[in-house]
Amino acid sequence: MKILVVTTSVDAQQQWVEPLAKALPDVEVMLWHRDMPVQNADIAVVWSPPDEFFARERKLRVAFNLGAGVDGLLKLPSLPAELPIIRLEDAGMAVQMAEYAVWAVTRASRQFDDYVAQQREGIWHPLPELRRTQWPIGVLGTGIMGTKVAQTLAALDYPVAGWSRSGKVPAGVESFAGLEQLPAFLARTRVLINTLPLTPDTRDIMRRETLQQLLPQAYIVNMGRGDHLVEDDLLALLDTGHVQGATLDVFRQEPLPAEHPFWAHRGVTITPHVAALSLQQETVAQVTDKLARFINGEPLTGVIARERGY
Ligand code: NDP
Ligand code: OXD
Questions:
Q1: Domain contains 307
Q2: Which H/E stretch holds residue 153?
Q3: Which residues, 6+ apart, have CB-to-CB distance to 250 below 8 Å?
Q4: Which of 121, 158, 219, 306 has the least CB density, counted as fewest CB within 10 Å?
Q5: Cα(9)–Cα(70) distance, integer angstroms
Q6: Which candidate, 170, 110, 101, places its Cα nearest to that of 134?
Q7: Residues with Cβ within 8 Å of residue 57, at least 6 apart in sequence
Q8: Domain that holds residue 106
């Protein structure tokens, strides 16, 4: 049995190949290189692989994704239609997403950004108290990531709602389901936090028409994918003041181009796609466990439903 690891990480050998080889002593684990001959590998462990990899390795039985989102994988033309794709489920990422959301929300609602600005000016000036009812939060996508985000913010007593296809939300979070309930969800939301997967149904979901339906002085937090947000529409709504600010981790083009207006915009905070990192120990443990189940023909979770795209 042979595993090929394909990632964009510079230290993939140490980060993924060596720990996987240690955890799976009976399996050959190798780092894939463009210039190596075809390996006829059985298993792929990937993050952002090039299309060429799937064009060349035609004997694969399964591909494990080293992340939660599989949009980058599913768009590859050479990815075989029947190849089972298994994604990471949580693996230590959900708590990081929740942390990121708390950071973004409290900077705006508790005015921590304003205090940083005041410090720079040497100003000692307590600002008015926070009324949580003035900061209703709406979480787009209440899967593994969105559930943790919604639960964490609800535990801080913000009014929180979640929007998904099924309407499944954790206790204490208001539920909205499907496109028909999207307008009502947006109309009660001031802080919109995106944790959706990128699919044909969710692409561009945050655009002028939807963002305009948010409460005034809205705030946007995007941790899903860059293609969920129409960036020019956000910039236009920041200019009108309908949106007061945004914290963005993901972008239509990554790395964000040097000339992009987000870099210098006062209302925008950016991070380089790090809201949640794939943690080595948790990821290797999960991939190893799922691999053993796959080999033994046992049921396993995290299998992508190709027709719905997540
Ligand atoms: P899940 O599959 O567990 O959850 C997806 C959620 O989105 C579900 O609630 C699902 O609804 C909902 N959803 C999907 N399509 C639609 C739709 N058309 N309309 C309404 N709701 C929809 O995924 P995860 O929570 O594990 O991950 C979500 C995404 O977070 C990833 O795909 C990735 O893009 C992003 N991510 C970003 C990271 C970062 O560092 N920035 C790190 C990790 C993940 P239902 O429950 O009804 O199926
Ligand atoms: C993921 C990511 O999808 O890191 O896991 O974006």
A1: no
A2: helix 144-155
A3: 222, 223, 224, 225, 226, 228, 273, 275
A4: 121
A5: 17
A6: 110
A7: 4, 32, 38, 39, 40, 41, 44
A8: 93-270
Does residue 309 form part of some domain?
A: no
Which residue type occupies 265? H
Answer yes or no: is the C-beta of 164 below 6 A from any ligand 1 atom. Answer: yes
pLDDT number for residue 124: 98
Say how far apart CA 32 and CA 30 lie, in whole Å.
6
With a 6 A CB cut-off, is 67 part of the ligand 2 pocket? Answer: yes
pLDDT, tens digit, 9 for 90 and up, residues 161-205: 999 999 999 999 999 999 999 999 999 999 999 999 999 999 999
Q: How far is it, in rounded angstroms, from Cα 43 to Cα 107? A: 44
pLDDT at residue 71, rounded to an integer: 98
Query: What distance in Å separates the CA atoms of residue 227 and residue 212, rounded to the nearest whole number?
Result: 18
Per annotation, catalytic residue among 273, 293, 306, 308: 273
pLDDT of residue 295: 87
The tokens describing 117, both together, are 């600005």
Rounded to the nearest 10 degrees, the angle between the axes of helix 112-120 and helix 93-109 is 60
Residue 97 near residue 223 (C-beta atoms within 8 A): yes
Same domain, yes or no: 227 and 132:
yes
Give the chain's residues under pLDDT 70.
none
Residue 64: closest CA among 30, 89, 87, 90: 87
Residues 104-139: pLDDT tens digits? 999 999 999 999 999 999 999 999 999 999 999 999
Ligand 2 atom closest to 66 (CA): 5
Q: Is 33 part of the annotated catalytic residue set?
A: no
CATH code, domain with 37:
3.40.50.720
- Paired tokens of 8: 């964009």
Closest ligand 1 atom, residue 89 Cα: 26
Q: How many domains does the chain have?
A: 2
pTM above 0.90, yes or no: yes
- 153 and 261, same domain (yes or no): yes
